[in-house]
Write a structure and sequence with these properties.
By secondary structure, this protein is of the alpha/beta class. It has six helices and nine strands; from the N terminus they run E-H-E-H-E-H-E-H-E-H-E-E-H-E-E. It folds into two domains: 100 residues, Rossmann fold (3-Layer(aba) Sandwich), CATH 3.40.50; 94 residues, Rossmann fold (3-Layer(aba) Sandwich). Strand 2, helix 2 and strand 3 form a beta-alpha-beta unit. Helix 1 crosses helix 6. The longest helix is centred in the C-terminal third of the chain and has 24 residues. It binds 5-O-phosphono-beta-D-ribofuranosylamine.
Length: 199
């Protein structure tokens, strides 16, 4: 199976995926790293690992769908079977999501359906929860609403700050995401309704 990672920022998860690929913990081929931001550090990480990159500027496209169609053409050319989102901050058009049904994975730094959105670590910390965590899920058209693939809880200790909690969450992400990707690539995930079973 060929896959692409989409990232807009730091690329910590991308780095964890690259490391897992090196030791065959993910049995699939990373063929492309896609970004919507030329300054994404994820692109530097991809180049260092000799993974091909694609960076398109959304400002050069009239509509969201036009941008997505351009990306899709590249995915087709590289025979990409599935997509892994790792801090990709751009919403997709319906057309894009329908082109990869149940084949787009995302990682979210909270236990969905709690703390949806883009500031989940901060929101959970400020709410004062004692347990938060990490969710890997499929992408559907509604944001942060797809079926859950894997989840892992992270305890919030009395001495935690928002940044120490973020570090804990990232460490868990870097372990859980490669595992979920490998399960998907090996056909071990069975989706029935909104429930994913590991078979
Ligand atoms: C991660 O916390 C992930 O859960 C969220 O965006 C962040 C990306 O971090 N979707 P990085 O770019 O992988 O370091």
């Amino acid at each position: 199976m060929n896959f692409a990672v989409f990232a807009s920022g730091n690329g910590g998860n991308l780095q964890a995926i690259i490391s897992a690929l090196r030791v065959q913990k993910i049995r699939a081929a990373l063929q492309l790293v896609v970004s919507d931001r030329a300054d994404a550090y994820a692109l530097v990480r991809a180049r260092k690992a000799k993974v091909p990159t694609l960076c398109l500027n959304p400002k050069n496209f009239e509509t969201r769908e036009a941008f997505d169609r351009a990306v899709l053409a590249h995915l087709k050319e590289r025979r990409i079977d599935f997509i892994v989102l790792a801090g990709y901050m751009r919403l997709f058009s319906h057309h894009f999501i329908r082109s990869y049904p149940n084949k787009i994975l995302n990682i979210h730094p909270a236990l969905l359906p709690a703390f949806k959105g883009t500031h989940s670590v901060r929101d959970a910390f400020q709410y004062g929860v004692k347990v938060t965590g990490v969710t890997v899920h499929f992408i559907v058209e509604e944001m942060d609403a797809g079926a859950v693939i894997l989840q892992e809880a992270v305890a919030v200790g009395p001495k935690d700050t928002e940044s120490s909690l973020a570090r804990k969450i990232h460490r868990v992400e870097h372990r859980v995401y490669p595992k979920a990707i490998d399960l998907f690539a090996r056909g071990k995930l069975k989706l029935t309704g909104h429930t994913v079973k590991i078979i």
